[in-house]
Amino acid sequence: MQNERLSVMNFLNEATSRYPDATSFASGRPVEFHFRTDRWGDAIREFQTYVANRNGQAFLDAGRDLAQYGKTNGVVNELIAQQLHVDEGIECCASQIVVTSGCQEAIALCISTLCSKPGDVILARNPTYIGVTGAADFAGIEIVPVDVHPTEDWKSVLAHTIERLRRLGKRPRALYLTPEFDNPTGTVLDMVERQSILEVCSQHRIAILEDNPYGMFRFDGERMPAMVTLDKHGCVIYLATYSKTLCPALRVGAAVVPTTLFDDAESATRLRDELSERKSFLTLNTSQVTQAIVGGTLLAERGSLLSLIQPSLDHYRINRDVLLSALAREFSSDFDRILWNRPQGGFFLSLSLPFEFGKREVVECAEHHGVLALPMSFLALDDSHKCELRLAFSNLAPEQVDQGIQRLGVFVRKRLS
Ligand SMILES: Cc1ncc(COP(=O)(O)O)c(C=O)c1O
Question: Which of 29, 158, 260, 317 could form a disulfide with 219 if both were Cys (CB 3.0 to 4.6 A apart)?
Answer without folding.
Answer: 317
